[in-house]
From TrEMBL:
PANTHER family, per database record: SOLUBLE LYTIC MUREIN TRANSGLYCOSYLASE, SOLUBLE LYTIC MUREIN TRANSGLYCOSYLASE-RELATED
UniProt domain Transglycosylase SLT: residue ranges: 505-617
One Pfam family cited in the UniProt record for this chain: SLT
Lytic transglycosylase superhelical linker domain location: 429-494
InterPro entries in alphabetical order: Lysozyme-like_dom_sf, Lytic_TGlycoase_superhlx_L_sf, Lytic_TGlycosylase_superhlx_L, Lytic_TGlycosylase_superhlx_U, Transglycosylase_SLT_dom_1
Lineage top rank: taxon: Bacteria
Protein name in UniProt: Lytic murein transglycosylase
GO CC field: periplasmic space
Keywords carried by this UniProt record: Signal
GO molecular function: hydrolase activity, hydrolyzing O-glycosyl compounds
Amino acid sequence: MHITESFAVLTPLRHSQKMTLELPMHIAQCSSKTALVLTAALFSTLTTANLASDRANYQQALTAFNAENTAQADKLTASLRGYPLHPYLEAKQLRRDIDSNSDTKVADFLERYPNAPFARDLQTTRLNHLHKTQQWSKFHSAWQQKPLSSAKYRCQAAFADLKLGKRKAAFTQAAQLWNVGSSQHDACDPLFKVWMQAGNPSAELARERFWKAADARNLRLARYLEKLLKRKADKQDAALFFKASANPESVFEEKQLKKRNVHHGSIAAYAIRKIARKDIYKAADLWLDMRPKLTIEPRKAYNLNRYFAMRFAKGYRKNAAQVLDQLDPGFADDKISEWKIRLALAEQNWDRSLTLIGQLPASLQNSSRWLYWKEVLKQRVNPRYTPNFAGVRQDRSFYGFLTSEITGAPYQLHYEAAGITEQEKASFAQRADIARMRELLANEQVYEARREWNAMASKASKRDIQTASHVVYGWGWYDQAIRGASKIKAWNDLDIRFPVAHKPLFDKWSQDRNIDITWPISIARQESAYDRYAKSHAGAQGLMQLMPATAKATAKKHKVPYKKRAELFEPDTNIALGTAYLAEMLKLFDGNRVYATAAYNAGPHRVKQWLAARGELPLDAWIETIPFDETRNYVQNVLSFAVIYDVRNQRKPSLLSTAEEALLALNGSARVETRYD
């Protein structure tokens, strides 16, 4: 069992954003002589004396290309032939001169760099040029050399085939490209025009695409496709779908829905979802009534069962337990099954909770989560029972660490050294793509460096990805090392999974805020994996993922200099504000790190609501019944990460404080209701 990885969404990082590389702690803290040797090994492929000059010339070349200063750009490019990023400049030349270059020259370049990100950029320029100039034979050859996955270029390739007389192949591609639930790129229009003039689509294909558009809720496209339907029955079904869209309840009147018609099942599912937006109880009753009366695709039935189950369970709505039992009486859906248990835990119905755990499939019953609760519940049902946590505490997980703490057993980290030697890393770092990656980072082109990583990882073995992860860890590119380990599930490679970046800043601000240093470090590890430029869909930014509004209020309250959002990408500012906000949450929730951690993720207003609704629960039950999956995992991960960091840094580890541990279900003490105003 491993602790779940989750990361903030990465926004594209352009070369205007600076990434400062830092040496790992084990290098930074060694003697200057040793550090020099280790650092030199990282740059063995480059002549150190020329490196600064090459980087400066590379930046000047980029400026010249952007300014369309051809002579200067070409002169600088020629001077950088031995520099790892020379191919980027060469690709810029080829793209700039695409009108005058021979296609053979471009093809030769792509042959040398088939998988590089800049090769894809060049290929898009090449294909656009050949399509624009109607060089269909060359387009076909170029496409054969390096096909691209986007619909735009697939349509252009099929159109080129059409122009070359390969009508059958072109029409086969046209049918596949047309038959999707969304509108295709405008580049597909010429291909589709010829294809449709030939009598396409067939009645069957038109019906198929209509329902794909309907399933995607693309009503505008569905209206267009309705006109292409040829069969009377298909037109009637389409009309019924639009009736459901306008007035969802009306389709359940006068027995309009037929059991044998699978599309009527889709219409019913669509209508019920629309009704649920206004009246979840009415919609759920309707679903449970209509479900056995209609033919519904298994995927749609599964999704609707899950939808209602989560709406009822996570909202702790009345009769939620009964609704979940009706939705999934056979325990077929693991997530619904687990929420049945959480609802019982929230009611402190220990007998039912224990019975429900026994209904889980063996794989879930044997997870550390439910093994823990099974033993705790046995003790709550029968106070004479002595829980046996032997099967739980072997896990490197929240519940594994919790049982170790309860029983006084050592925490099991299951660390396994990767066994990658310094020589292996030095040799791997000499690869052209790895050298390019390193120089892109040095030139503050983090987005391009990540593209290089993705290209490398798409073709690499697990061992190569692990080696690459250790190499970039040595550069201080910690977030990519963590993601590399996660990609290949190298869960026991704790050396690269749990680095400590910006430790002096965490030391400084943790002491200033009077909080334990491991806590904000674990928050940053969970929030951003130490990617200082991480940005979530919600807008949270930086190492500790602060919302700009929260940052502004916190800065004002704690007198931290802060003027604009971009400053949240600066480690000092981000950590200063993040630790201040953490300290606020800790004070707000009377020193309880569990509640404070949940509040940092979900907001204090939500935690107050959850405590008002279920604050009488034992602390472990309260955590398990947090309605947001993300926040539940977040709390458990942050607390677990703190244990890992403490053990690895030879500090006294503790998952929970003594006061927090006293609130566990196993201790059986009644909770005292507390208000957090």
